[in-house]
Amino acid sequence: MRFLCIYRPSKPESDAPPTQQEMESMGKLIGEMHKAGVLLAAEGCLPSSKGSRVRLDGGKFSVTDGPFPETKELIAGFALLQVKSKPEAIEWIKRFLTVAGEGESEVRLLHDMPAG
Question: Is 109 helix (H, G, I), strand (E, B) or coil?
């Protein structure tokens, strides 16, 4: 089973890079996830000021450049996990949140594509 886990921090975003301690803690967890064979991909996002939102509404496109002020709408990163069950994905994400800090992660089961 593959799960997309989307991280939304509860604190306002910052242009400041992670501290050395934060990088080491996250690196250790990512290493453990790789060793366990559950981590397919993971990335952190740069601040929303460097991004845009593209919307299609009524057949017309609109593009809105960041920053996006609503913290609840911010996506700070993602992980793609391959695990045996949703509870297992949730346990890994609990460990991730312990390292990443206050916020929430949405854990979404992905469609499996038929082999062919």
Answer: strand
On the CB side of 70, CA atoms within 13 Å amount to: 2
Provide the H-helix boundaries in the chain: 20-36, 86-100
DSSP-derived letter for residue 20 is H
Q: What is the DSSP letter of 48?
A: G
Beta bridge partners of 4: 80, 108
Q: Which of 102, 101, 42 is nearest to 77 (CA)?
A: 42
Contact yes or no for 1/83 (Cβ under 8 A)? yes
Q: For the packed helices 86-100 and 20-36, what is the interaxial angle rounded to 10 degrees?
A: 160
Report residue 115 as tokens: 């082999």
Q: How many residues does the structure list for the chain?
A: 116
Instruction: Tell me which DSSP letter residue 37 carries.
Output: T
From the first residue on, what is the mean pLDDT of each consecutive set of 10 residues in the chain (116 residues)? 94 84 94 97 91 94 88 86 97 95 94 75
What is the H or E stretch that residue 42 is in?
strand 39-44
